[in-house]
Amino acid sequence: MSGKGGKAGAKGGKASASGNEKTMSRSARAGLQFPVGRIHRMLKKGNYAQRVGAGAPVYLAAVLEYLAAEILELAGNAARDNKKQRIVPRHLQLAIRNDEELNKLLGHVVISQGGVVPNIPPEVVVAEQTPLVPLSVRTLSSSSVVQKDLIKEFYIREIKAYKPAPVAKDAHVGAVKDLTTPSLPQPPSLPADLASGLAAYDKAEPIELKGKATSGHEGVANSSAAMEFLELLEADIPKEDAHH
Questions:
Q1: Contact 94, 113 (CB under 8 A)
Q2: Which of 26, 82, 33 lies closest to 54 in space, CA to CA?
Q3: Per-residue pLDDT for the chain (244 aa), expressed as one digit of tens each?
């Protein structure tokens, strides 16, 4: 029977794929685990824009997969630290709040049954670990004690780590070229000098007096003129002055 549409029983549309070829999802093409097709359908239903391109769901799926992997890794570490085999909301809370970037991203998100994160100032933890202050003093809640403890610890660390800067020595500074020891002061006359002086006096020329000429001090002592001169001097000096 002739008519429009060609042969009877023929099917229109695209040709069917062969049985050997398998369909490949967009997630597998992008190398992702999150469903790209489902995210694309949600973007179109949500009326976020008039048109949704083919690359938008792939990009969004990659971002969501990265964030999920990061949070799961940190939560697994928190569960392992608490010696647990299963991740609970408490571990998610600790993982997110202890990470600076995730805490900033999910700062306004409330995690149900996650509890709260203890807020302990770091200076208090350092003060408890330092051995500079006794335990009885460390238990006090006074902030002044903690500040004094920290200042003392930092001061001791700076003293131990201090090293004076090397100073370049000048070639002319501190160089000793010649060292001479100072001589000891000597007295004005020594016995050797006296002996030489007396010997020179004995060898002096004879002195002429009223008596006979003699040489040296022996001639002066034996001369009569010298004796008379001494008697004259003794007669001139009064007795009271002689006693003094």
A1: no
A2: 26
A3: 445 555 555 555 555 555 556 889 999 999 999 999 999 999 999 989 999 999 999 999 999 999 999 999 999 999 999 999 999 999 999 999 999 999 999 999 999 999 888 877 777 765 555 555 555 545 544 556 566 677 777 667 766 666 666 666 655 555 556 666 666 655 555 556 666 767 776 776 665 555 444 444 455 445 566 677 677 766 655 555 545 5
**Stated pTM of the model:** 0.43
In 98-129, which positions are buried (b, 16+ CB within 10 angstroms) versus exposed (e)? eeeebeeebeeeeeeebeeeeeeeeeeeebee
C-beta separation of 44 from 51 below 8 A: no
